[in-house]
Amino acid sequence: MHTRRIGDVEVSAIGLGGMPMSIEGRPEEARSLATIHAALDAGVTLIDTADAYHRDAGEVGHNETLIAKALASHALGGDVLVATKGGHLRPGDGSWTQDGSPKHIKEACEASLRRLGVEAIGLYQFHRPDPKVPYAESVGAVRELLDEGKIRMAGISNADPDQIRQAGEILGGRLVSVQNQFSPAFRSSEPELQLCDELGIAFLPWSPLGGISRARELGSAYAPFARVAEAHGVSPQQVCLAWMLAKSPIVVPIPGASRPETIRDSAAAAELKLTDEEIAELDAV
Fold first, then answer.
1. What are 223-265's pLDDT values in tens digits?
2. Nearest-5° Cα angle at 79, 123 to 150
3. How many CB atoms lie within 10 A of CB 224?
4. 3-state secondary structure at position 224
5. What sign results for the dihedral spanned by CA atoms 53, 55, 60, 62?
6. Shortest CA distance to 275 belongs to which of 243, 251, 252?
C-alpha cells in the first residue's frame, strides 16, 4: 500500500470510512468486523469515524465502539490512525443536527476517548459548522483539546476556504486535515482541495464514490470512468479513487464500506496508475 501523510503521521493512501457499518441499513456486527479486518489486511492504516455514526438515539458512538473492538482483535490494530469527529448529532429519527458549542465538543471528545479506549485521539475533527455558534468558538475548543493533550492532531470537516484559513490561524498552524464531500457527482469542493494543496494540509474526501446508494452506479452514471476501468481491467470505483489520488499528494480518500470485498477493491486503487490522458478525460466529466 502506498502511503501519504496527515500531519506527522504516515497513513495508507486509501482509508476506510466507517459510517455505513453503523447507520440505517447497516450489516450485522460480524460482517462489519470482517470488513475492518479486511481493510487492515489490505494495508489500510487510516479509519475515519464519528460519534454521530449511529442509527438509534441511545447508541451514540456505535461506530467508534465497533472500530475499537475490531482493532483490539487484530494483530495490526495498533498501527491504525483513528480519526473521529464531534459536533454533529443524530436524534434517532434519521435527521442530523449540530452542536458546535465548546461545552459539547469537549464532552464529546471525552466520550470518544472512552469508547476508543485511548489516552489521546489520533485525529479529532470538528464535524460540521453550527450556525448558532461562532466558528472561532468551536475551533477554539478543538485547540484547547490539542493543548491539553486529549487529541494528537486537529482537523475540520465540511469547511469552506475562509473557514480553513480561520481554523489554521486559531490552531496556530496546527491544522492537519480538511474532510469535505468530494466525488464525480460532487465537485464543488475543488477550491478547498486546491487550498489544502497550497497549504500542505491533507484533504480527506468523504463519500468519494458518491455515497452508499450511488457507489455501485458510478460506472453507469459516468461513462468515462467505466471506459477507463475496462481498459485497466478494474472497477470504476478503483478508477475513481485513483483519479482522486492523482489530483494531489495531499488527497487521502476515505471510501465507506460494509463488506470485505468492497474495501479490498478500494484499497487496490492505491496501486492503480492512470495516464495523463485518462486523468484529463475524467477531469472533464
1. 999 999 999 999 999 999 999 999 999 999 999 999 999 999 9
2. 30
3. 18
4. helix
5. negative
6. 243
Q: What does the DSSP assignment read for 63-127?
A: HHHHHHHHHHTSTTGGGPEEEEEESEE--SSS--EE---HHHHHHHHHHHHHHHT-SSBSEEEE-
The amino acid present at 207, given as its one-letter code, is: S
Separation of alpha carbons 44 and 189, rounded Å: 25
251/16 Cα distance (integer angstroms) = 14
Distance CA 146, CA 152 (A): 6
**Threshold 0.85, pTM exceeds:** yes
Write the CB contacts of 176 (distance below 8 Å, at least 6 apart in sequence). 6, 7, 123, 153, 154, 155, 201, 202
Q: What is the pLDDT of residues 110-146, one digit of tens each?
A: 999 999 999 999 999 999 999 999 999 999 999 999 9
Cell triple for 92 = 434517532
Tell me which of 53, 124, 135, 222 is the catalytic residue: 53
Instruction: Say which residue the cell 470512468 belongs to.
Output: 225
222 is catalytic: no
